[in-house]
Amino acid sequence: MNSDLQYYALVTGASHGLGRAIAEELARRGHNLLLVSLPGTGLPELSANLAGSYNVSALSVETDLLRREAPAELLGYVRMNGIGVDILVNNVGIGHGGAIGDYSDSEIEESVFLNMRCTTLMTNTFAGELGRSGRAYILNIGSFGGFMPVPYKSIYSATKSYIYHFSLAVREELRRSGVSVSVAMPGGIITNGKVRERLTKLGPLARVNALEPDVAARHLVNLMFRGRSVIIPGWTNKVAYYIGCALPFRLLLAMTGKIFRGIN
Question: What would the CATH number be for the domain defined by 6-260?
Answer without folding.
Answer: 3.40.50.720
